[in-house]
UniProtKB/TrEMBL annotation:
Protein name per UniProt: O-methyltransferase C-terminal domain-containing protein
O-methyltransferase C-terminal domain segment(s): 6-47
Coiled coil: none
Pfam families: Methyltransf_2
Domain of life: Bacteria
Length: 154
């Protein structure tokens, strides 16, 4: 996950949780601006204390996405949200908000962690999924997926 976020000027993590991925992102990309969204206020407080240089946003990503209005073009979004088990009323606005962030620049992408072999969610029409790798040493084995905009034909 953290490897896929290298060479970007800003990293947005959705669902920071206990901070395991946040820590790897911060270690590998100390110069990048880091914004972390976390639904649970308690977990968000923990992330804020542990990563004082990061902007931690408590609450649902799709309800707070407006804080991302000034991101640099080279931004990567990293997510561990369990899309396949979330209710549609959460998945739909979350995917819409993610797609809006990615559409702002062709260089942007979503790096998504999933335990399933299927793509994490149906890609919007102007996006495509790529399965980057399977991490066999994770228990259970996990897949890293990347969502990016389809190339614009001339
Ligand atoms: C699978 S856990 C992430 C695990 C995390 N990488 C860790 O190391 O703990 C998913 C996290 O996403 C948060 N979450 C769920 N829905 C969310 C949403 N709509 N916006 C932001 N965070 C959300 C949950 O509270 C949970 O902490």
């Amino acid at each position: 996950m953290a490897e896929g976020a290298e060479a970007f000027d800003a990293i947005v993590e959705v669902g920071g949780g206990t901070g395991a991925i946040t820590q790897a992102l911060a270690n590998r990309n100390p110069e990048a601006r880091l914004v972390v969204f976390e639904l649970s206020e308690q977990l968000a407080d923990g992330l804020h204390a542990r990563f004082p240089h990061a902007q931690v946003v408590a609450g649902a990503f799709h309800e707070n996405v407006s804080v991302l209005h000034d991101l640099p073009p080279k931004t990567v979004v990293v997510s561990g949200l369990p899309f396949r088990s979330l209710p549609a009323r959460i998945v739909r606005p979350t995917v819409d908000a993610l797609a809006d962030v990615l559409r702002a620049d062709q260089a942007r992408r979503l790096v998504q962690f999933s335990y399933r072999l299927r793509a994490p969610f149906a890609a919007p029409a102007d996006f495509v999924w790529r399965r980057v790798c399977t991490v066999w040493r994770n228990a259970p084995p996990a897949n890293v997926w990347e969502l990016h905009g389809k190339p614009v034909s001339a």
